[in-house]
Amino acid sequence: MEDAYAAIDRYMDFYNNRRMHGSLKRKPPKVFSTWILQQNEEERSKFHKAM
């Protein structure tokens, strides 16, 4: 069971912190989240409307 938890943790780390997502401007989710929060309201609004 411990091996399964460790494997899941590694995958979640990869998926959220390193895997490039095409729909997120080729950024991992964690990096994209930080980036979008740094944008002003007008830029955020443009991005959300485009999705």
Tell me about this structure:
This protein is mainly alpha-helical and 51 residues long. The chain is built from 3 helices and no strands. The protein has helices at residues 2-17, 29-38, 41-50. The relative contact order is 0.10. The mean pLDDT is 86.
Topology of helices and strands:
Elements: H1 2-17, H2 29-38, H3 41-50
Features:
single chain, 51 residues, mainly alpha
Low-confidence stretches: none
- What class do helices, strands and sheet pairing give? mainly alpha
**Overall body shape:** elongated
- Topology order in helix (H) and strand (E) letters: HHH
Summarize the structure.
With 51 residues, this protein is mainly alpha-helical. 71% of the residues lie in helices and 0% in strands. The radius of gyration is 15 Å and the shape is elongated.
